[in-house]
Amino acid sequence: MLRGKLRVLQAYSEEVTQELSAHLFSISPEDKVIFVTFKTFEEIWKFSTYYTIGFLGHCLENVLFDPKLWLQSVEEDMSVEVTFQQDILNLIYKCILMQEGSFFASCTANQMFDSSTSGGDLYLEQGDIAQFEPPFLGSGWSVRCLTDGARGTAPKPSLEPVLAFNQWYDADGPDELSIATNDRIIIMGLLVSCFDWFIGRKESTGEVGLVKTNMVRPEDTYNSEDVFLDGEDTEFLGLQEDKVIEETLDLLKKKHSLTNCVQTEDAKHEELKLHIQRVLSPEPTFCLSSEEKNSPTDPASPSETPNASCPCFFVPHIVEGKNHTEDFMPLFTFLENSNYSLEYGALYHLTPDQLSSTTFTGHSDENQLTTFLSVARETARKKRLFWSQTRICFLLGKLCVGRSKFSQARVYFEEALSLPREVFTDFRLLTNIYYNLARIYLIQKNTDSFFPMTERLIALLMGFSFCLEIVEEDSILKQILKKAILSNNKQAQARANYLLAKHYWMRKEKDKVIPYTERLLVLSCEDTPICTISPSGGYLTLGGLYNELELANLSSCSFRRTSLDPSTTITDSLSCIVQLINHFAPQQEPCMPCHLAPYLHEVLSLTKFQEKQNGRHHTLSHHLTVCLSEMFSKHQMLDRAIQYMHELLETSPPSHSLPISQMNSALIWLAWLHIEKRQPDVALDILELVLATMPEHCTSPQEGEALNLCGIAFCSMGDLRRAVENYQAAIDICQEYEDLPNWAVAQANLGLLCLKAGATGLAQSHLTEAVQIFSELDIDGHEESFITVLLELGKLYVQQGQIHYGKGCYEWALLLSISELQATSQLCGLYSSENPDQAQCIIYSLHHLQLLQKTEDRLQTANAMETLSLLYLSLGTHKAYQAALDYTKSSLGMFIDLGLKEKEAYGWLQAGKIYHLLGQTELVDLYIQVRAQEVALSTGDTKSILNLLETAGDIFFNSEQDRDKAITFYRDRALPIATKINSVHTRLRLCNKLTELMLNLKIHGDAVEYAQTALDLSISLGERLSERVAYHRLAALYHRLQQSELAEHFYLKTLALCPSPLQFDEETMYYVGVYQTLGDIIFNDVKVKPYVY
Predict the structure, then answer these.
(1) Which of 287, 335, 514, 741 is the most exposed place for a label (fewest CB within 10 A)?
(2) What CATH class has 856-982?
(3) What is the CATH number that goes with domain 758-851?
(4) What is the pTM of this model?
(5) Where is the SH3 domain (predicted)?
(6) Which residues of the chain, if any, have pLDDT below 50?
(7) Alpha helices in 20-54 (DSSP H)
């Protein structure tokens, strides 16, 4: 089955392969091989990434699995495994890099390079990454060292290109902890060997600061495998389980509802009755526990902490020589604190404009504020208020940055770092200073200062999670990743990718999050993972991002990987379901798509482990089970649908969170399933238990539904009297509650029962009433029942001789049954023949194709594609030819799969014709002379072979190029077959085409033979027009061969066959031409030339 799907995959694979960053080349269904190619190394990087994180197989599942296979995969382990030849991919990768002209590679051995700059030779060790340029015009390889920029050359260096992701990426004091030998340093955050610094705390004093990495030796107990800090959020979405469950329940309730049904023609049983009695027994009202009522957010969490704000300070006018110490005291009191506070955090986050307008008031302009802070700085220095001086320097630096005075800002920031203090305890301030200095060094291209400063900032990013909020630009983070790549440190790469992904996520640059999240997942999938990341959160994040970018296949693959990951939670799985429902099953569609069945089943399995802890999971489990049951029932997998409902009853406790009405609805649905399974006795037992729980003197709409199904069950068992009683009771209750859908169904069922019993008068009355009620309903969801009633009522009218009424019922049913597919088909016919409009015809044909694809009628789909190909071909543009070729190939694949040899042969022929029109002559012979003829010959049908050979010749005959190739098809292949089977009309047609073709190609001698044959055949058939055309062509040929007497003879024969009087205006011009030609022949060739005076 999957091989057959592979044959038609080409019809739908363009979108899939584009999302996978590959270009489809061909498909070999027999070998189960798909050939793809790549044009850039970025495509190879993405394709390899999707393979590593498990997307390729799921992508193909989306295309190859039909609804029943998706449902079977719930119970059976079904999946598509994808493998590819890594050596071939590596070869393509290297070829692409060679074409790029410059790429990054790792040395596979220690080697020397002749220096191309001043100084000694360049030496690179094994594992060093450098930039290489392939030889050009006989020169050797060029290399550039990435650490110092030194260059060198070598004839054939030993190298291996770096990973495609790395290829893409490489495209550009007082804060130190005083330590002594044998001091024990507790690592805060992460210690990564490729970075110069890390954050440590001295065990003896508790002081925290920067420590040189090369000055310590980690103990054996140190675990450096993780890339996340304690308490750091490893997921970006921040999902809350209660909210996700509520959203899922809302969607599930909309997607499953009990259908109103019109009747159409053991030990486990007792156990089922016990389960039903248990779940229907009275139970206490469900209440949320105190833990469930509380908000899932921790009261102490930062999200509930009131936003802190820093106080305002008045800026007086500064008079030179005056002591302003008193004016500065409020500011000093606020700033002179060695530890961090929330007010400081608010101050650090302010922009220069906010500092000038909100924190400081009373000044006329920014210069006055700068003067005030400068004097305050000097005063703090004299009074040795170092923390006040540090923070004032920081504020002055920010103001200077805001005015693009980077050199002055650098002075202030460096002063803030140089002030004497025992230890730097405000690490948010330190991070802000480092970050601003690094930005300034980068702007000023001061690499000597930039890299050491970046190393210190990296240590803070590796040690404190809050630092990422401070780093506003990505240049520093990219520098971390670059150094991690050059050092080949996977742990550092993972941390850097996480920081970059989180950085872009916080700034809502979602498209930039994707490559770093993908890379983080790739690192987590390696044989020896370098981090303990939970992949489910990463896949879920990717799924949402792909969804926003409308990459449906990749989004679906991400959600599938989320649900399959062992680390997934109910919240993750439900989030996948919510997003998939919103994307693939919009609100207007009443049912759930079948490819969601595995997700629902997996969440159902997860809820079984948590039902004792949270009542919400009972509700969720109930709706998931009913939804799955409806999916299986829709595809006639009744055993599995019933099994789900039985499992629900077995696992539901007597005291649960569901209202009794919802449980009754589920039991009524189970009863209907047993009726469909032709087990009416089981259905009756279920319905009697449901009815027994309802109040005796207080009816409800659900009682009407149950009584209607009781009527169907009794009817199935042959107890018509009790069936009538139940139908009538259902009608009375539905009428009382104005439950129109069930009222109409009950009336219809009673009418059909009366009809079965021969009571035609009662049947007509009830069916007419049902029609009237159905006509008042919104037709969506009731079409099938309504049409059934109309057809039965129409048949009854016809049997009674009331033809007019019967015809009305039939026409009404026909109007309701004309589906969108049928209407679109009619419109295609209208615009193609009756009211020709090429553009409209293409539009409706495209829509028709989309509808057919949903029906999975592959023959009709292939025919629709064939029609679309012809429509596009008639437009005559290059773009239209390409579209025609795509549809031709798609239909060809389906014809091959369906075994329609004749259709297949003409498909190959049509593809060859389009390649001929596109000028791709190298493929024309393959498609026409090899594929099409081979398939045609395999049919063994001589007439089909003859028609195909003639059609193949017509391709070249009607073309402007390679017209001589038509002769081979006409003369050497088709004509002998036509002669053998004595197909006179085909011989005449082929001889006429050969004569015309050879006349144009100036093969006059050979053309005479076929022209004479055409004449003889025309005379034998009595076709005067063909005879006249043959005489004319013979005359023209003899004229070209300078045989004037014969030319004159045949022209006169032509004229003798012309009708008299003339039938068309154009015949006048024809006569003029022939007589002029005859005059020339007589004057120049036949008669004696006149004298020349």
Answers:
(1) 287
(2) mainly alpha
(3) 1.25.40.10
(4) 0.63
(5) 157-221
(6) 11, 171-174, 221-223, 258-259, 264-269, 282-306, 587-588, 611, 1088-1093
(7) 41-52
Q: What pLDDT is attached to residue 823?
A: 55
Per DSSP (E only), the strands in 116-189 are 122-124, 129-133, 141-145, 151-154, 159-161, 185-188
Q: What is the secondary structure of 579-634 as a DSSP string? A: HHHHHHS-TT--S--GGGHHHHHHHHHHHTTTTTT-THHHHHHHHHHHHHHHHHHH
d(CA 940, CA 948): 13
Per-residue model confidence as pLDDT tens digits over 171-199: 444 455 656 666 777 777 677 777 777 77
Token pair in block for residue 305: 């902490």
Are 376 and 328 contacting, i.e. CB atoms less than 8 angstroms apart? yes
Return the domain boundaries, the chain: 1-92, 93-161, 758-851, 856-982, 1015-1092
CB atoms within 10 A of CB 3: 13
Q: Which residues contact 683 (CB under 8 A, 6 or more apart)?
A: 671, 672, 674, 675, 709, 713
> How is the chain split among helix, strand and coil, in percent rounded to 5?
65, 5, 30
pLDDT of residue 10: 53
- Category of 982 on φ-ψ map: left (φ > 0), alpha (ψ -120 to 50) or beta: left
Distance CA(429)–CA(433), nearest Å, equals 6
Topology alike, domains 93-161 and 758-851: no
Domain 93-161, classified CATH 2.30.30, yes or no: yes
Are 426 and 339 a contacting pair, CB within 8 Å? Answer: yes
d(CA 968, CA 683): 73
How distant, in Å, are the alpha carbons of 348, 518, 740, 1062 from that of 785? Answer: 69, 50, 13, 66
Tokens, residue 535: 């992949």
Residue 444 DSSP SS3: coil
* Cα–Cα distance measured from residue 39 to residue 705, given in angstroms and rounded to the nearest whole number: 62
Integer angstrom CA distances of residue 674 from 272, 641, 712, 1081:
12, 10, 11, 95
Task: Tell me how far apart the alpha carbons of residues 480 and 39 are, in angstroms, rounded to a whole number.
Answer: 30
- Residue 391 · residue 334 · CB < 8 Å: no
> pLDDT value at position 648?
82
Instruction: Give residue 284's pLDDT.
Output: 36
